[in-house]
Specification:
Layout lengths: L1 H42 L8 H20 L9 H23 L6 H6 L6 H9 L1 H17 L11 H25 L3 H14 L12 H9 L1 H15 L5 H25 L3 H4 L1
Helix pairs in contact: 1-5, 2-3, 2-6, 3-5, 3-6, 3-7, 3-8, 3-10, 7-10, 7-11, 10-11
């Protein structure tokens, strides 16, 4: 009797799984296409095009380098300060640019939302992934600096992949929150600029934390991006994690941000059509 009742369920399961797999494939394809479109629009009719992805980090590094190295005499031994700085900026810019793109990803696509139905979370996801292009160009600059200064990197640099994945998960989570809130409150677009400007000074992007007091160091590394950037530098240049406990804390924050952001986004998604 039980076999008779469960037989229809067993027959439906493969079709249901296949349908979900098909939907997932479609949304992944849409995400990729939107990310490519974002890059094309950003550099369309631009005189220098993708070269801006090279120019921006170099200009930022030059400004911060002048302020912290020339004026405040920052030291990052044994890593040359230019290499230290460009490393922090490379990973920070991926995070900051991803958040700025995600914030306006939904509110800036009202026409697309009116024409097509698709999971709205695709928009901030694609916006953040589009910034991978800029990041890859910045990595090229970082490698050039490493070669010019003759800095030795360790085989542990391979660990940069899972650490970067942690950063990406955290960026997705915060990006989902900002994208949803910006639809409801348009001043979030202004607030994110201030948030990033303050956040970078509470992250060891431009200065080493080695000489900081234990209290200040704890504050800086409790910040998830502070712990992540410190870990990224560690695995590239020192071969070991100097603050592994704080990295695990960052993993926890990243998971909470991702799932919390996803839940908030899904709960407010039904309001998008009413306020846009």
């Amino acid at each position: 009797m039980l076999n008779v009742l469960t037989a229809p369920v067993r027959k439906r399961m493969p079709a249901r799984i296949a349908r979900r797999y098909h939907d997932l494939s479609r949304w992944m394809e849409l995400t990729k296409n939107l990310a490519v479109r974002d890059v094309e629009i950003r550099y369309k009719r631009s005189l220098l095009g993708l070269y801006w992805a090279l120019i921006n980090p170099l200009v930022i590094a030059a400004i911060y380098g002048f302020v912290f190295k020339v004026i405040f005499h920052a030291s990052s031994k044994p890593i040359p300060y230019p290499v230290f700085l460009i490393t922090g900026i490379t990973f920070w810019n991926f995070f900051a640019n991803g958040l700025m793109s995600a914030t306006t990803s939904v509110s800036g696509n009202a026409a697309l939302l009116a024409k097509l139905y698709f999971p709205r979370v695709v928009l901030p996801t694609a916006a953040i992934l589009a910034r991978l292009i800029d990041f890859l160009f910045s990595v090229v600059i970082l490698l050039i600096f490493i070669l010019l200064y003759g800095v030795q990197i360790h085989w542990t640099s391979l660990w940069i992949i899972p650490i970067l994945a942690i950063q990406l998960v955290f960026t997705f989570g915060i990006g989902y929150i900002l994208a949803a809130l910006n639809v409801l409150y348009r001043d979030m677009n202004q607030l994110i600029g201030l948030l990033i400007m303050v956040w970078i000074y509470f992250s060891p992007v431009m200065y080493p934390i080695a000489n900081a007091s234990p209290t200040v160091k704890d504050v800086l590394l409790t910040n998830p991006m502070g712990a992540i950037i410190q870990a990224e530098r560690d695995v590239i240049f020192t071969g070991h994690l100097t603050e592994p406990t704080f990295l695990w804390t960052a993993v926890l924050w990243s998971a909470l941000a991702f799932f919390g952001g996803l839940v908030l986004f899904k709960k407010t998604e039904q309001l998008f059509s009413e306020v846009m």
